[in-house]
Specification:
alpha/beta; TIM Barrel; three-stranded antiparallel beta sheet; 2 domains; eight-stranded parallel beta sheet; 332 residues; 23% strand
Length: 332
Amino acid sequence: MTNFSKRRQLDARLENWQFENAFTISRGTRTTTEVIVVAITEDEITGRGECVPYSRYGESPSLTLQTIESIRADITAGITVTELQELLPAGAARNAVDCALWDLSAKKSGKSVWEILGINQPGPCTTAYTLSLDTPEAMGRAALEASHRPLLKLKLGTDGDADRVKSVRRYAPNSRIIIDANEGWTSDTLEALAPILVAARVELVEQPLPAGEDDALTDMNLPIAICADESCHDCSTLSTLPMRYDYINIKLDKTGGLSEAIAMTKLAKTLKLKIMVGCMVGTSLAMAPAHLITQFATFIDLDGPLLLANDRTPGIVYNGSEMQTPPSELWG
């Protein structure tokens, strides 16, 4: 139950971070990412969380800030992470508050979040590195520059994707490849591309069909693993996915925070769904809580800071594609 004797301070603000290069997916191109940072202070100790509002889900920075402000009284009165789940729906706003509360709890208790949750301590891991959607020639050049990276993620979803895949494989012959179509294909496109993807040794295709049209996957016998992204948000969305997908992509901005993400790992196991952990493009502050999910995941896609011109200090250290354990000064 909320302890109304507590008086916390809440600060929620918008930050803009520049991409190192223009970032393109099938929905458009961006040069900056807008993030919301929530800071909750109690007894002169501050916990922080970061979220990235996503227009695909009807979110915007201004609406996200309004949503956080709508529960200001609850936050300053001492709301718990459990109570938060009932106040806000899954999404970016709840994610920032949820992660800030976990960080605050860790810093006040002197324990890491993984200790509080009773899970294993996560260690270094290998993240995918994303290649932005471009012409086959440009993606080939990008693949050549990134060919030392063990796992590449290709943004696709438009005409010419077969040539893009072939070009990347030609210039990065030793890298593992996964694909994110961002709902850009039809079932006919997927079936036509499947043998080409197999020949290029693609290991996973993320959200090939629009979320509202993925019933078609039920009757498709595909030779490649399929991962739900836009079709997968929180635990309530998982029950029908095993009939269509092999993997789910857990992103904290979709789940509404670490609390629901942990619950999803447990439910996914019972449903025999494998896990990919992903992110919107944010700073190390957004990656740090997601790093806890890496111990449950087969595929890890937490390369947000690698796509930015600059990151927070302190931030997560990336040795190439190897993501190190986030420093406690950053989060958790």
